[in-house]
Design goal:
By secondary structure, the protein is mostly beta strands. It folds into three domains: 79 residues, OB fold (Dihydrolipoamide Acetyltransferase, E2P); 70 residues, Roll (SH3 type barrels), CATH 2.30.30; 68 residues, no CATH class. The chain contains three helices and 16 strands. The strands form three sheets. A six-stranded antiparallel β-sheet has the order 1-9-8-7-10-11, with no helix packed on it. The chain has a five-stranded antiparallel β-sheet with strand order 5-4-3-2-6. Strand 8 and strand 9 form a beta hairpin. The longest helix is centred in the C-terminal third of the chain and has 11 residues. It is globular, with a radius of gyration of 22 Å. It starts with 6 loop residues before the first strand and ends with a helix.
């Protein structure tokens, strides 16, 4: 029992699940997949489009949120591998969702996506605030996200408050902003385009294709399918630095 309240209902992969996070927050650990000096580090603070990090050898640095969030079609990190969590004395404030309620026993089951998207954890219904005692309700609690089992989660301090200090969510496979240097392939004819001097207020954008400069409609470049992929164009890559600057200006 975790804090006297939890019991495993369906044992999933637990925190050993290495699924790449959809948001960056202090305490997460990562290992770079390329480079001459590959050192594991922990995120100390999220500052806009950057994560301030502490390396295990005592060094400090910063890593772009774009590169930390980037993942492939299978959910694996492209540039960094997620290595779990740094242990905190009071645990992390993490989001939960009520997925099952049993009025007869006075218990409910909650999902903790940051710990494990599969495992369901049972807790006393009375441990939740009144406003969260309904199916589908979302809130937050403190939990030891380094726990290897449900019994070690130490759930406490349930609240309707949201966790703070988190980054934005990953954009998905297709950008939400246009920026200089981004490269796209048009689905209809497979032609490649590299964006030039993007004006966010303009309805069209200049792009280089086959040695010629053409103009493309911004709305068609940004249009998405339900699966998050581009509707008319496929994003190929590039433009990470300029996209980061665009986001900073937009805020």
């Amino acid at each position: 029992m975790a804090g006297g309240h939890t019991l495993n209902i369906k044992q999933g992969s637990g925190p050993r699940n290495a699924a790449h996070p959809s948001r960056i927050r202090p305490g997460q650990r990562f290992f770079p997949l390329a480079g001459n000096s590959r050192r594991r580090f922990a995120v100390r603070q999220v500052h806009g489009e950057w994560a301030l990090v502490d390396h295990e050898d005592g060094g400090k640095g910063r890593v772009s949120i774009d590169r930390l969030l980037a993942s492939d079609d299978e959910g694996n990190g492209l540039y960094y591998r997620f290595h779990g969590w740094k242990r905190l004395p009071r645990g992390y404030r993490t989001e939960f969702e009520v997925v099952r309620i049993c009025e007869t026993t006075g218990r409910c089951a909650i999902a903790l996506p940051e710990w494990d998207a599969v495992t369901r954890v049972e807790t006393l219904l009375e441990s939740l605030p009144d406003a969260l005692r309904s199916l589908g309700a979302r809130g937050s609690c403190r939990a030891d996200l380094t726990a290897v089992s449900v019994g070690a989660l130490q759930l406490h301090d349930f609240s309707a408050a949201q966790a703070r200090g988190l980054s934005r969510v990953a954009d998905g496979p297709h950008p939400k902003l246009l920026a200089d240097g981004q490269e796209y392939r048009r689905r209809g004819d497979k032609k490649m385009f590299r964006l030039l001097e993007v004006d966010p207020a303009a309805a069209s954008v200049a792009a280089l294709s086959g040695g010629r400069v053409v103009r493309l409609r911004a709305a068609r470049l940004l249009a998405r399918r339900p699966d998050g992929e581009g509707l008319h164009f496929t994003y190929v890559g590039g433009g990470l630095s300029s996209t980061r600057k665009r986001r900073a200006k937009k805020k």
